[in-house]
Amino acid sequence: MRKNLFAPLALVTSLLVAPVVSATSLTLYSGRGESMVEPILKEFEKETGIEVNVRYGATAQLAVLLQEEGKRSPADVFWGQDAGAMGAVSQAGLLAKLPSDIYDKLPNIYKSVTGNWVATSGRARLFVYSPERSPKAEHPSSVFEITDQRFKGRVGWAPTNGSFQSFVTAMRVEYGDERTLEWLNAMKANGAKTYRNNSTQLEGIADGEIDYGLVNNYYLPRFTKVDAKFPVKQDFFKEGDIGNLMNVAGAGVLKSSKNQKHAVELLRFLTSKHAQEYFALEVNEYPVIPEVSHSSDGTSYEKALKASPSLDLDKLDDLEGTLALLRKAGLI
């Protein structure tokens, strides 16, 4: 029996406030932050005349709330921050089958194999480095290689960060717990320096504390937008390496929704060129359609697609197992 991966419902309900619903409206449970998604939702309302009533909360908390509410849920659409939560809700049987035209032309890394949810944007794992202290000829070809002696004390990571934990989950899916634990222990033994999050790793490189970091692709552009000479670069490991994981934000329509037509319309909008340009240009995430170009610091859409490993995104739902492994390694 699948374990409940998320926080208790009592915590969820204490943090969430029910939205007010009007006649022509949708209720959206959004694990994506309000400042990030409100502008594009306003565009949808303006274009369609459909009001979107949003219940914001952490993705994991909303996922467990949906499982507790079941058929009684007022939600029409669930918009999650990561594939693991989308997979959990899908495997709980709560999401409706989507029309195939929404996802059939998307790359495999951007869609659920069940056809119950679809990616709305992507963010790639990669490594950042100091171009002054880390010449390209010395770069690791794989995330497994970064445990070599020549990188001792030069690498940063953030074991408590959610995106890092999703990456570890993907490593477990691809290589198993034993090899993943070996990698975690090897990183620790090699003097990997612990940081709070992605941004502080970039700051650590700029300050000379470390030469490499393991982060998401969109953090460096935030720094270079302010300072074009910020002394950090980024790149992918070899093609298909698990260190290049493309994780996604995704959305699905609830089976219990009484307004699935408008709910599907929202998903079509979120995967449209207009919305994808917003995610690419304003949020610095990767678009899910090739019609939208995205290139920042040498990590283009095309390069990210080629570099990413091919995984069943629905299998990235075992956060509990990942946390247990990180505890076993003494990292959290």
TrEMBL record:
Signal peptide extent: 1-23
Keywords associated with the record: Signal
UniProt cross-references to InterPro entries, sorted A to Z: Ferric-bd, SBP
Transmembrane segments: none
UniProt key word Zinc-finger: no
Keyword Kinase: no
A Pfam family this chain is assigned to: SBP_bac_8
Family: Belongs to the bacterial solute-binding protein 1 family.
PANTHER family, alphabetized: IRON-UTILIZATION PERIPLASMIC PROTEIN (PTHR30006:SF15), THIAMINE-BINDING PERIPLASMIC PROTEIN-RELATED (PTHR30006)
UniProt name for this protein: Iron ABC transporter substrate-binding protein
